[in-house]
Amino acid sequence: MKRFLGFVKKEFLHIFRDFRTLIIIFLIPAAEILLFGFIVTTDLRNANIGILDLSHDEITRQLSDKICSSGFFIKSEDLLNYSEIDRELRKNKIKAVVIFENGFGRKLISEGKAVMNIIADGSEPNMASLVTNYITAITADFNSGLIQKPGSGNILVRSEVRMFYNPSLKGHFMFVPGVITIIMTLVCALMTSITITREKEYGTMEVLLVSPLKPVQIIVGKVIPYFILSIADAILILILSWFVFGLPVKGSIILLLAELMLYILMSLSVGIMISTVSKTMQQAIFITLVGLLLPTILLSGFIFPLENMPLGYEWFSMLFPPRYFITVIKNIMIKGTGLLYVWKETLILIFFTAVSIWFSIRNFRIRLN
Amino acid sequence: MTRNTVISVKNLVKKFGSFTANDNLNFEVFEGEIFGFLGANGAGKTTALRILSGLSSPTSGEVIVAGYNARKDPEKIKKNIGYMCQKFSLYNDLTTRENITLYGGIYGMPKALIKKRTEDLFERLSFHEYSDRLISSLPLGLKQKLAFSVAVLHEPRIVFLDEPTGGVDPITRRQFWEMIYETADRGITVFVTTHYMDEAEYCDRVSIMSEGKIVALNSPAELKRLYNAESVEEVFVKIARPAGTKTLSPEVKSENN
Amino acid sequence: MRTILYLIRKEFLQIFRDRFIGKAIFGVPIVQMLLLVPAVTFEIKNVKLCIIDRDMTTESRELVSRLEGSTFFKVRFSTFSEPEGNDLLHRGKCDMILQIPSGFGKEQGLAQPGKIFVSINAINAVNAQLSLAYLTGVIRDYNLKVLTDNTDPGFLQLPPQIEVTNRYWYNELLNYKFYMLPGVLGILILAIGFVLAGLNLVKEKESGTIEQINVTPVKKYQFITAKMVPFLIIGLVDLSIGLIIGRLAFGIPFEGSIALLFLCSAIFMTALLGLALLISTFSGTQQQYMFSAFLFIIVFVLMSGVFTPADSMPVWAQKINLINPAAYIMRINRMVMLKGSTFHDLGRDIISLTMVAIVFTTLAVNRYRKTA
Fold first, then answer.
1. Complete domains list, chain A, with CATH
2. Predicted confidence (pLDDT) at residue B252 exceeds the cutoff of 60
3. Which residue among A97, A278, C88, C275 is least packed, with the fewest CB closer than 10 Å?
4. Would you say the ipTM is above 0.95?
C-alpha cells in the first residue's frame, strides 16, 4: 500500500510539473463557459434582412418599421427589384427578404387583404425558420392592431403562460449542462488515454510492469490524480456558472457531486479502454478527439434536441453516455429533482463504467499474455 | 603534409542560466584527423558538439567550422558536416532504404548517386536482408552502423559522432571503429566523443574535458608519456578523477540526456 | 524543391505506415458523415402535451382537437389533477401543460375572454418560445373560426388581414442534411488536420528525430511545408469523399463551382495547418500539444457558426472570428455548395482567409528553431 501511495504521489508530481497543460485543462472549461455565456447563442438577434417594397405606402412603411425595430432584425438593404434578391442572399449579406406586393396598402384597405412574401435563406434552415416565424408573428401582431376597436369582444381566448425552470428564457440553462458533459467526456478520456499509451509507446510500461506493483495498481495509480483533477475542473465549471450566469444548483449538491464523480470515472475508464486498443499516442488521440468530438456534441442533446431526431436515432444515441449525464445534470441543477428522478440514468452510467473497465482489463490481460 | 584547420574554437563559453556547461574552450581540429573528445558524463562534451554542429548557439567566443562562423552561419556549417546523435534518431517507422533515400535527398544528392551509395552501403555492411525492414526491428549494433553511414552518406568535410558506440557489443565496436578509419582515410575529419577510454587510443588526438573545461589535449602517446601512464584510461583517471567520482548535479544530468 | 519532395514523401510514408491512422483518416469521416448528418435537426415536432381539461365543454374540446390536429403537438396525457401534470413536466414526460379551467366555454362571448393556463418546460429557451408561438397561432385560428362561425357573415365585417406567404430559397424544404453536411465535413477536416499535423511535429521533438533533421541544411520553410502538404492533400481527399457522400447518400445539390470550393478549402487547410504547427512549436510533448489544440478546436468550432448562428453573436465576437479559419470555411462551404455563390460573392472572405493563412504559416516557420 505504501508503495502504491508513493507511486500515486509520483504521478501527481509528474502532472504538476507540466504546469502549462494543467493551466490549459482549467482554461478549457472556463473558455467554454464564457463562450456560451457571452458569445454563442441559438437565439435570433440583429439578423440582417432586406426589404423589397414595391408599394411604398404608409402601411408598408409602418410594418417594416415595426419589424426592424423589434430588436430581432436590422434592415441592411432596400432592394429595388426581384433580381437583387438572389444577389444579396448569395453574398450572405442578409438572411431574408420581405416583399410587399405592388399596391399593398390600397389592396389592404379596399379588398381587406394584401400579401406579404418572405423569402428566407434556406441554407441555414434553423435561422430561416426562426426569421420566418418571427416576422410572421410580428405581422400577426400588426394585424390585430388593424382591427378597428371592436372592443375585447373579438378576443375569445387569452392564455396565461408560465415558463417553468427558466422564466427569463436564458440560453445557458441549456448550455451549462452540455458544456460540463462535453468537457468531462473529452478531457477525461484524453487524459487517461494519453498517459497510458505514452508509457506503452516509450516502453516504460514494461519497466512498470516488472515492478512489484500489480498492473491494476499501476492503472489505478495513474488514474487517481486525473480523477481529482477532473473533479476540481467540474467544480470550477459549477462555480463559474454560478458567478457568471447566477445559475445555482437547485437540487442536492452532494448528489450532483456524486453523479459528477460517477461520470468522471466513466470517462476516465473510456480513456483507459481507448489506450488498451491503441499502439501510439497519436492513435489514442485520434480515436478520442476525432472519433468522439462530433458524436458527443451531436448525439448528446446538447445543441440539438434528441426528441426531434429521425426514427432509429433515438435508439442509436442511447449508445452514447453523454445524453444520460446531461439529463441527470439538468434534473439536479435546474429542476432540483432528486435521485428518484434520475436513478435510471445513474444505473445506465454505472453500467457503461463497468463495461469499459471490464473491457480494459480484458484487453490488458490479452496484451500481457 | 600541411595541416588545414577545419575547426577552430576560441574562448567558447556556453551557459544555461547560471550553469556553465562549456567554460572557455580553446582548440583546433585539423583536416582528416580523428579527434577524440573525452570526458565523464556531464562534462560538457555534448554541449560543445551541438555548438560545433550548429544545433546550439554559443554564449560567447568564436567558433569556426568548415570555414563558417557557428554563430552567424550555422546553416552553412550544416551543409558541410554529418552528425550522429547520441540518441538514435533515424525514423523508426521507415525502412533502412527509405531513411537513406530521405537523407540523401535532403543533402541534395542526385537520385542515381543516392541509389549507388545505398547499394554500396548494403554491400559493404552486408545489409541486404535488412534493406527493406523497418529500422525499429534492427539490432542496436546495426542501427548504430546505419546511423553512421547516413551521417557520411553525402561525404561531408567533417562528421560529428556523439558517443556512437554506447551500449554496443565489443565486436560491433571494433567494426564501427574500422568504419571510422575508412572514413578518415577518405579525408573526412572525424570528431568523436566517447567515454570508452580504450577507444581514445584509436584517435589521432584526444582532448579530455572535466567540469566544462578542457584539461588536456594531445595525441594519446604524448598524453601517456606526459602523465607517465600505461593507457589513456590511466591518464583520464589521473586528471579527471574529481569529476568522475563526484555525484552529478541534476542539471548536468538533464543536459546530457 | 527536390528537398521538399523527399520530405513530403517521407511524411506520407510515415502517415500510412501506421495502418490504423491510414484507414481512420478516411474511414472516420465516412462513418461519421453517414451516421451523423441525418441525425440532427432543429425542427421541432411532437411537443409532448399534457391536457388538464376541467371545462369539458364543446368549446374546450374543440380547442384540444385543434391542438391534436397539428403535427407540432402530440397530446400525451390527459388528467384532471394539476400536481400530476406538474410531476409529468418534472419527469420530462411532457413539455407543456395546457390547463383549461371550468367555465371556459361559458365565459366565451361575454365581455371576459376565456382563460387558459399554459406551463412550459423552458430549459431549452428557444424550443419553449417556438412552442408558445405555435400554441398562440393555434389559439388565434380558433378565435377567428369561432368568430366567423358565430356571427352572421353579413353582420360582422372581417378586419383587414395581411396574408403572409413564405418561401425558402436554396433549400426549399428546409432539409437539415443540406445544412449539416457542409458543417460536419468542415469540422472533420479541421479536427483531422489539426490533430495529426501538430502531433506529427511534436512527436519528432519528443522522440528526437528532429535533431537529425535540424543538423542538415534543410530550410525552415521546406520542413514546415513538407509537414503541411500531406495533410492538405488528405484534407482535400476527405472533402471529395464528403461531397460524393453528400451527393449519393443525401442528394445534396451542388450549386457552385467545385474548383472554387477546393480553392477555398486549400486556403482554409493552409491556415489551419499553419496554426497547428505554430502551436506545436510551443509544445514539448504530445500531451501538451493535444490539450492546447483541444482548446483551440473547441473555441473555433463553437464560434464558427456551424451549429449556432454566427450572426447572432456580439459584434466584438464576430471580429474575433476574422482569425478563425473555421468561421470562414463553414460560411464558404454552405454558400458555394447550396447557394452557388461565386468568387465575386466571396471575394472579401477569400482575401482575408488568405491573409490569415499567410500569417499563421509565416509565424510557424519563424517560430520553428533549427538552432537553439
1. 2-40+171-368 (no CATH), 47-145 (3.40.1710.10)
2. no
3. C88
4. no
